[in-house]
Model the fold of this input.
Amino acid sequence: MSEVRIAAEPRTEFGKGAARKIRRADKVPAVLYGHGIDPKHLTLPGHEVLLALRTANVLIRLQGEGVDELALPKGVQRDPIKGFVEHVDLLLVKRGEKVTVEIPVTTTGDVNSEGLLDQQLVSIAVEAEATHIPTGVEVDVEGLTVGSVITAGDLKLPKGATLTADPETVIIQVNAKPIEEPAEGEAAEAEAAEAAEGESAEAAE
Done:
């Protein structure tokens, strides 16, 4: 996984007022922690952070006054309406060390025409080197029949990744398609047609 370099400035003002001031300048307050260090309070450029966070488990190289570290986003707060990033918690990582992260699970192919795909989890927890975190894992569901189940232990993880979730956790199952009942209007029309046929038969007698 490639690194995304982001300029980091030390942050000395705290509180809601200071945070609002930072956001008005199109910047994001952040905290870097881990490896037993005292948390470092930083200010990051808002646009660069927003672009970086589009990649799951993005590896960020923080560079600036008093900081030159690798970090992983571990907590992101967003504005519930506008969606911009309000705050970021960053975990300090070192090359070669392993971290536990969630990676996305995607499917390829189509299940049997009689079945309905039910994906119960869209991500799975794995352990991998901080600088070699896989982008995700694909599951081929082509032709799976009703009753098929794929668990976490069935996943073919990328090289270097180890499953940390319960292997028995159900990721995907194939259910039978529900039987379609006629719409209310169609049912009424069918009943009317049957009644009419019955009346015609009685008249004929």
Observations:
- The first strand starts at residue 3 and ends at 10.
- The CA atoms of residues 78 and 86 lie 5 Å apart.
- The helical segments are 16-24, 46-52, 184-204.
- The two ends are 83 Å apart (CA to CA).
